[in-house]
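User: Structure tokens for both sequences below?

Assistant:
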Amino acid sequence: MSALQPQPRPYSRIHWRTPITMVILLTILIGGTWWGWNSLTSSSEQNCVEQKLPNNRLVPKQIVVNVYNGGARAGTAQRTAEELRKRGFNVRKVANEPSGDKTEVVAVRGAAADSPEVRLVMGQLNQKPETVGDNRGDHTVDLVVGVKYNRLNTKGVPSIAVPADSTVCLPSIRPTQPIPSGENPN
């Protein structure tokens, strides 16, 4: 019987091609992910459109409002949003307060605390709101209804005067498109 002899070690050669290929592919993957995320999160659309207003009046159909429930009973934000729609406002979102903060009565947030769109939304309220200017670029208005919120004013302000020959930055309003009959929406 012969004893097992150790096998001679084959010529050891380091294969550099595989690790280099993996590093290049990983770099391409990370770069593509970064580019895709930036493309997704940064809108190439203009946030608002500078316009001269006819008759120097800002009307509800030119404003986009998000209505949030900041501690009120369930359904309060939905009822408020429906009433604002009846008055001509474009309601984009109805949801709970995104930050989760509770509001005592009512809060109105917009690009500036004294901007025309914020003043027009404030004109719909029968309670004094807390106004917050947050320098948003899209000029939408957030209405946050709180615990002690009652309802909208029965006769809200129909329009707000703006200085003559001034331009106002208004949000882009995308009309909803109906589905043609006979086409599957899915």
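Moving on to the next sequence.
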Amino acid sequence: MTQYPQQQPAQFQPPMAYPRLPKKKHTVRNVFLVLLVICVLGVGGCMAFLASAGNELVKSVEDSTARSAPQEVKVGKAFSVGKHQTLAGWTVSSEAGMFSVAGKVTNVSDSTSTAFLHFKFVSKSGEVLGNVQCNSSDLEPGQTQVLNCVPDGQFSKAYAKVTAEATF
């Protein structure tokens, strides 16, 4: 019998370990992403601020326009237009055949302001019979002054309504 060399049981060897590669840090990519996020948030914040400021501006203009828009007024009755209040007792009369307005105005705003008022006299048919431009000097808040008025148009008692508006 031939003898074969006895084989030794194979020893377990762990699989060959691959050397670990150094982990990439991606620093440039991370800095770029952070800057991108900051830019997006900055642009979004600016857009929100501009939208808010735009809304406030629109509200302010609408309020100012509404206060200054032509409104029908009754002769002798107090009314407010723009930053001023025309006091009760104002009158309409004929002066040299022209419309004439006499009255006082008070600055009801928080700042110095000059009154510029435009009165329009309109017939029942809608025809403009005359206009009167009135103004004051600079009035401090709460100050009152007699209006300085310049007529335009022939006086007629046929007017059916009077409108007033601020013209500044």
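User: Anything stand out in the second?

Assistant: The longest strand covers residues 128-139.
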